[in-house]
Write a structure and sequence with these properties.
This is HNH endonuclease. The protein folds into 2 domains: about 190 residues, no CATH class; about 120 residues, no CATH class. The protein is about 50% helix and about 10% strand. The chain has 17 helices and 8 strands. It is elongated, with a radius of gyration of 23 Å. The structure holds zinc ion (ZN).
């Protein structure tokens, strides 16, 4: 529900540079082996596709969205996205994704990479974590399978059409399992990574229905708390978040969180908050940590990816006067 500046991604890529270089050596070796595997009976176009990946291997991992789009056009000339997504190319596509290391990175690299960027909750719904437990087949042990926590990502350029971008860091959108299922092939206008130099503000918002708080305080019935999910207009050809993920439906089940914020606003008035800050100067060294304790979540827009429900919490807390607008 909010974009991340390129600067943060580039700094994080810098931190993991050595590890990324190791991945490149591995994937180039893997792809060379795949290309010369006679059993695969690779056609000229498939070999050209592999060569194109090898010759841009490092850049394909770290390239920004604009550059990825240029690569996309080059790959389209070798194998069209429709062909790549077809049944006929299925085994080639899956083999490529495997040799590029995407599956392995989901458990050994993405969790720490995205933790460093500051994403632990779904970039679409912000209601769930980006980790899902998946069944893993165990071939070497007596156990047939185990369950393992794996990082979930959606690909801006889908890996069914563009296996070449399956490990491109700017192509990865961390998501929860249910949003990943719902998104499928729908096009969205949301861009997770932004080159904006100014501070980024979310254009999505949860708005309390006027009179909702007063009604609730009088009746003390949770069903009197009502809010709407508002999102920016989109082109007719693309879908809105609400249509694809039923954001309103998800959050309508979380009215108790809004209730807690309404009641907190009654207790933690501005003078009382000031008194608490003065009483515990060593605990509350920054306004951020005081607000985080107060809300039980992050309180700044740029931190909403750090914890599920942060966006909803911030929007409601602002409207009930718990934190500044
Ligand atoms: Zn989600």
């Amino acid at each position: 529900m909010i974009a991340i500046p390129y600067k943060i991604v580039d700094n994080t890529i810098g931190v993991f540079n050595t590890e990324i270089d190791t991945f490149i050596v591995q994937l180039v070796n893997n792809l060379n082996r795949m290309r010369s595997d006679k059993r695969l009976k690779l056609t000229r176009e498939k070999k050209d596709y592999i060569n194109e990946i090898i010759s841009h291997s490092k850049d394909l991992i770290i390239a920004k969205p604009k550059k990825l789009d240029q690569y996309r056009q080059a790959f389209d000339k070798i194998i069209t996205p429709a062909d790549m997504a077809s049944k006929q190319f299925e085994s080639f596509r899956n083999r490529l994704i495997k040799e590029l290391g995407y599956t392995t990175r989901r458990s050994d690299f993405y969790p720490k990479y995205f933790r460093k960027i500051g994403i632990k909750s779904c970039v679409y719904c912000n209601a769930h974590l980006t980790v899902a437990i998946e069944k893993v087949t165990q071939l070497r042990t007596k156990q047939k399978f185990t369950y393992k926590a794996k990082f979930q990502v959606d690909h801006y350029w889908p890996k069914s059409k563009y296996p070449c971008f399956s490990i491109s860091l700017y192509n990865l959108y961390p998501v929860c399992g249910s949003c990943n299922n719902c998104k499928s092939f729908h096009d969205l206008e949301f861009l997770l990574y932004s080159d904006s130099k100014t501070s980024i503000i979310s254009s999505f918002k949860f708005n309390l229905v006027p009179g909702s708080v007063a009604n609730y305080l009088l009746s003390r019935k949770i069903e009197d708390i009502n809010f709407t999910f508002n999102e920016p207009p989109v082109l007719p050809t693309v879908k809105k978040f609400q249509e694809v993920f039923d954001i309103q439906g998800i959050y309508d089940t979380q009215k108790d969180l809004a209730e807690e914020l309404i009641l907190k606003a009654e207790v933690y008035t501005a003078p009382y908050r000031l008194k608490l800050k003065k009483q515990f100067p060593k605990l509350f060294t920054t306004p951020g940590i005081f607000n985080r304790i107060l809300l039980g979540n992050y309180s700044s827009e740029e931190d909403i990816h750090k914890r599920p429900m942060a966006k909803f919490t911030i929007d409601i807390a602002r409207q009930v006067g718990l934190i500044k607008k």
